[in-house]
Every structure is written in structure tokens, then in C-alpha cells.
Amino acid sequence: MTAPTRDIVQYYVVNSELGMSPGKIAAQVAHAATTMTLHCLLNDKSSHATFQAWLNAGQKKIVLRGTEAELLRLSESGYLSIRDAGHTEIPSGSLTVVVLPPADKEEIRSVVGGFKLM
Amino acid sequence: MTAPTRDIVQYYVVNSELGMSPGKIAAQVAHAATTMTLHCLLNDKSSHATFQAWLNAGQKKIVLRGTEAELLRLSESGYLSIRDAGHTEIPSGSLTVVVLPPADKEEIRSVVGGFKLM
């Protein structure tokens, strides 16, 4: 009997109210990816096993969209959020993306279940 | 007299011929961000100073677009490239993004000068 395969996913929620271009969205999501990778490697030792299992399985990422208020709520719950420096397109300090750490899909269904795909 | 400020940038070149959605593009660029971060931290010790300076200055990212042939040329030159697992939207193995390591803008102008913003 083999162990059940874990379905580990990293979710991003993009602020759909800012009217960002596809390139801008990609850059903001990539900021979140870089920052979360550094966090998982350097700060959050407790998550190493899940992070490594997620990498080994192809680092599955799903990009969702939400309102400013929804992102703010996630951010205030302690999820890592990205605020833009405001060099292009949008005002400085805009909340652009919230990113969740890689986690078992079933465990975070309650957090991201209400969001639509980007 | 102060030292001149370095303008360190990380460029991404997205394959514009695949017709990917904004969410798919963001996920692919984020794969590149995660993979490059791991590479800079764990493998390429020679780039640590530049990587750290780039992080400290706000991890500036610029997303460009290119043709399949242009991405292939960059990939064959040794730049890190992302091929999609093909779960959604596009065929498995599609070359989606090429990412350059964070570098001084002037130094990589010759590599990315011909590409347009995404």
C-alpha cells in the first residue's frame, strides 16, 4: 500500500480593483514568489518539509483574484502581502497580492474557497 | 562623494505566442522567480552580493515579451527557462518564460534591449 499523494498548492490572490496590466500582475506575483521562497528557506524552519515536497512535485501555483477588502482581510490575518513601490501604473503602497505558503489543498480550502481564478 | 547607486534589475521574457491568460502568465513568471531565488541562494555563490543588493533595493522586476524562437535562443545561451507541466491551457513542455539573474541594468542591456514590455 502506498501513502496517499499530497496535493500541495501555493495560492496567490491578486487585487483585481487596481486595473493592472498582465505584465504588472506577473511582476507583483513574482515579488510574492521571491519573498515567500526567502521566508520558507530562511525564516520558517517548521515549513521546510512541506516546502520541499511542494518543490519536488513541481511547485504548483494557482493565481486567484479578489477585491481590495478581501486582500486586506487576508493580510490582517497574517498572510504575506505585497505593496507596490508605485514606480509604474498604480499609486505607491497599493496592496497588490497576498500569497499563502505552500500547503495541502484540503487544509486551505476554507481560506481560498471563495475566490475565482484570475 | 557617494558611490553611484546601482540599478539592479531582474528581467523576465514571456513567450507571447502561447496565448496564455494573465493568471497563467503570472504563475509561470512566479515559477521563474521561485527557481531563480533558489538558484541564487543555494547554487550560485558568486552572485550573492548582487542578489542581496537587488533585494535591499526592492527586487525590481521587469516583464518583457518575446517569440518562441527568441526565448529558445536565450535558453540555449544558458539562461534559466521554465517549461510548463501542461496541466492547464497549453501543451506539456511549452517554453513559457526565460528569466535572467538580477544584474546591473547597463550590463544586460545588450541581452534584453530588443524586447518590448509585456
Automatic annotation (TrEMBL), chains A, B:
GO terms for molecular function: peptidyl-tRNA hydrolase activity. It catalyses: an N-acyl-L-alpha-aminoacyl-tRNA + H2O = an N-acyl-L-amino acid + a tRNA + H(+). It holds the Pfam family PTH2. Its EC number is 3.1.1.29. InterPro entries: Pep_tRNA_hydro_II_dom_sf, PTH2. It comes from the Bacteria. Keywords: Hydrolase. Belongs to the PTH2 family. This is peptidyl-tRNA hydrolase. It comes from Paenibacillus filicis.
